[in-house]
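Thanks for the sequence, V.! I ran Carboxypeptidase regulatory-like domain-containing protein right away. Repeating your input here for the record:
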Amino acid sequence: MHRHISSGMKGALLLALMFAVFQIHAQEFRAVLTGQVSDPSGALIQNATIAAVNVNRGPPTPPNRAAKATTTSRTCFPALTP
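Predicted structure:
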């Protein structure tokens, strides 16, 4: 028994295949940096201001990437570029 695929179904399959290929290439290149701020003894530091600096690029240029630690000493830098 032979089954025929309608032209509408062929178009939908082609569109789904193209969409799947674009999804593969649409990967995120930025990073998220999270952490907890503490002093050398391990004590947590609340409300600290932290800067993210790429040491391979030299001094940071505006806008500087800065974040403030929470009351639980957690911090997050979303969408850091390489």
